[in-house]
Amino acid sequence: MRRETLSLGQVQTRVCTWGEPGNLPVIALHSAGLDATSLERFAVIAAASDYFVLAPDLRGHGESEAAPHQVSLADMAEDVVDMAQQFSLKRPRLLGISLGGIVAGLVAAAAPERWTNLTVFCSPDQGYETFRDRAVATEQGMQSLMEETLHRWFTEDDIRSQTDFVVSAQQTLARMDPACWDALWRDFADFTGWRAACALDVLCVSGGSDKSTPPEKVGLIADVLKGRHVTISSAPHLLLISHAQQAFHLWQKFTEQWCRSSDHCL
Fold it and tell me: pTM of the predicted model, to two decimals?
């Protein structure tokens, strides 16, 4: 993994990359409360298969220097476009998980001609008032949210076993600025939902054990975007971490099949 600092939308942030820059480009966007490094399991597998993976710390996360008032889905989406331009990427593949899937969807809808295809992992079909209930970190601290959040993200067995990825996620979540966490969830609650299908092939992946965004919610996104919906039966919400190999194989099959049937794949 390589790391560099970029100014995206006049906000300094970290971008992590895996693989060789000349390989097929993939932009990967992380979940709320985590950062670009949380995608390493998936990215390492992709890089070994000749993809060049780029993952920014979204606003308010990781090493992003965004202030709470700068944290919004719309600004995150603009940052992704800015990053693609700065790296001179030619029609990269877009993917994101949970929050990252929403941001990827906004990016794709704004300018579908810039991207090759879109994959959404475990994202909600819209914002919900319950999201606003999570915006209490400023008053109560990030630690107060830890248990409930981890149980939304992972299986009970993973949490009980304290697997390395659960411990890493817990440490990353604990470092997040509480004010940025609250700003994010207030904005996320106002997300009005996915719009009509864009001119991209779309794959939606859900986890059969996802307590946060169950398969029926992800299926609603596939219906709106006229995409394909696949469920990994045993996977929890953060399946790019817990089921990285299975997620990669699904994604690779989707993107390679699409390329074989397209005259525009790079």
Answer: 0.95
